[in-house]
Design a protein that fits this description.
The protein contains 20 helices and ten strands. By secondary structure, the protein is α/β, with parallel strands linked by helices. Among the domains are: about 70 residues; about 220 residues, Rossmann fold (3-Layer(aba) Sandwich). Strands 8-7-6-9-10 form a five-stranded parallel beta sheet, sandwiched between helices. A three-stranded antiparallel beta sheet has the order 2-3-4, with helices on one face. Helix 5 packs across helix 16, helix 7 packs antiparallel against helix 13 and helix 11 crosses helix 13. It is globular.
């Protein structure tokens, strides 16, 4: 008796793998079938004749296997197989493969990806602006990473910072307290806080919950709310400070190819882009400005068809964009700001501060917490073992929805938090013991729906 191997699924004449494969097949998740092969796969499990086995060719033993070769997906963390080096396992990342040394693909390719720092240009120092009241702008959530970034820019570099906060309805109490603490501690930071009308936000959230199973629109909606503000104030830089594991996770989720991490430094490609702008009587783009326009245009008009054709479309962003467009009035100011900034060249450059580099080579969560508590009045979450996403009360809902959709092979997007905590433990930003404690209590990896989903449903009903 032959079976379709676990985590492979027949879709439109192709087999798709829902998981993270090991080298050399890490991103080879789609196998095209002939009509004859498709017919045979549709009938599995079944016995195969010699002629059918010949028709299946290289699929036998890989995608099509006998019962003794059939793998199973664990139903809980205690049944999972863990990587020998990090805490990646085949429960939180269903379909995770391991090499002969017991390592997951992220650990097996660590040296190959150590240069992948950011999909936007990296910049750790900034000049004082001569055209704006502000040197830089930051989207500030009150969470650990954005608070540390705010501290670095305002206290270490002594820059005039514009901190922009979208007050979402599920903001945690500790995040609210941390924002107030930052206001008192950081004298050269100006804070702007905005709240979307509940009527509009519920329209967006209802649509997003119906398509993605959660209401997470961060940071996309914040970009839409504040981009016109950045353009109006002629802020030269919009600075991100994503935790390093988040940035590398995009590669392992097949959302960003390696070239995306070096595009900002590619003089040839940028010269071609600027030639086109000059020929259309628009000023050439400075480093980071292309990334700003690309990000804002994606939110205003949807994903670039070339990106989707190449297989690097971001399902999460696509669903957020679809949901946001349920309220067209929110998008109109963004479109106007895109047009005016593109024509004038007054575009805030989208750049990333390398948190590892500014910490002396290693972004240690424990040391960062101690620093921002003493210097910024940061308030830690009630769950002391929580290291990821400390600013939102319903983070578990997002994690659960991403996890369960991937687990059930309804989405090919690997849960972001599963990659992030695995990479953080791989890179020693968190100890193995701390990571496992967070897996067991603070994150939404479970086959049972967490209470946080009820909070979301109550808001959008």
């Amino acid at each position: 008796m032959f079976y379709l191997q676990n985590r492979w699924k027949l879709e439109n004449g192709r087999l798709r793998y829902y998981g993270l494969r090991n080298k050399p097949y890490m991103f080879k998740n789609v196998v095209k079938l002939t009509k004859s092969q498709e017919r045979i796969v549709k009938n599995l499990p079944c016995e195969l004749s010699d002629a059918e086995i010949k028709t299946m060719k290289d699929l036998i033993g890989k995608q099509v296997v006998k019962s003794e070769e059939l793998r199973a997906t664990p139903k809980s963390l205690k049944d999972a197989r863990f990587c020998k080096t990090c805490i990646a396992n085949d429960f939180i990342i269903a379909g995770l493969e391991f090499d002969k040394n017991g390592q997951c693909p992220m650990c097996a390719t660590k040296n190959e990806t150590k240069h992948l720092k950011s999909v936007v240009p990296v910049k750790n120092t900034f000049e004082h602006s001569k055209k704006s009241r502000f040197d830089v702008a930051v989207f500030y959530t009150g969470g650990k990473d954005s608070t540390y970034l705010l501290y670095y820019l305002s206290k270490v570099l002594d820059l005039k910072v514009l901190a922009l906060t979208w007050e979402l309805p599920f903001m945690s109490n500790c995040a609210r307290q941390s924002i107030e603490g930052a206001k008192k501690s950081l004298s050269n930071v100006e804070f702007i806080i905005r709240k979307v009308a509940d009527e509009d936000l519920k329209k967006i959230y209802k649509r997003l919950y119906s398509t993605a199973g959660n209401t997470c629109a961060c940071p996309s909606l914040a970009y839409i709310l504040f981009y016109p503000e950045l353009v109006a104030n002629k802020v030269p830089y919009f600075v991100a400070g994503n935790e390093p594991a988040q940035l590398v996770g995009l590669y392992y989720n097949h959302m960003a190819p390696k070239i995306a991490y070096t595009f900002g430094n590619n003089k040839f490609l940028n010269a071609i882009i600027n030639l086109g702008r000059i020929l259309t009587l628009r000023p050439p783009l400075k480093r980071g400005q292309f990334h700003t326009l690309a990000t804002m245009r994606q939110l205003a008009y949807g994903d670039n068809f070339i990106k989707n054709l190449a297989g690097y479309g971001n399902q999460l962003v696509q669903k957020v964009v679809d949901a946001i467009h349920q309220v067209p009035s929110i998008v109109k100011p963004l479109k106007r700001a895109i047009r005016s900034s593109s024509l004038s060249g007054n575009i805030p450059a989208f750049v990333q501060v390398d948190l590892n580099e500014i910490c002396g080579g290693h972004y240690d969560w424990r040391k960062i917490k101690d620093l921002i508590i003493s210097q910024c009045g940061w308030v830690a979450p009630e769950k002391t073992d929580k290291g990821l996403h400390t600013s939102c009360n319903i983070e578990k809902c997002k994690e659960y929805s991403q996890f369960i959709r991937f687990y059930n092979m309804e989405s090919n997007m690997i849960p972001f938090s599963a990659l992030e905590i695995s990479l953080a433990s791989r890179d020693k930003a968190i100890t193995r013991e701390e990571a496992i404690a967070e897996l067991n209590s603070a994150l939404g990896f479970s086959l049972d729906e967490p209470p946080e989903c009820a909070i979301t449903k109550e808001y959008i009903k």
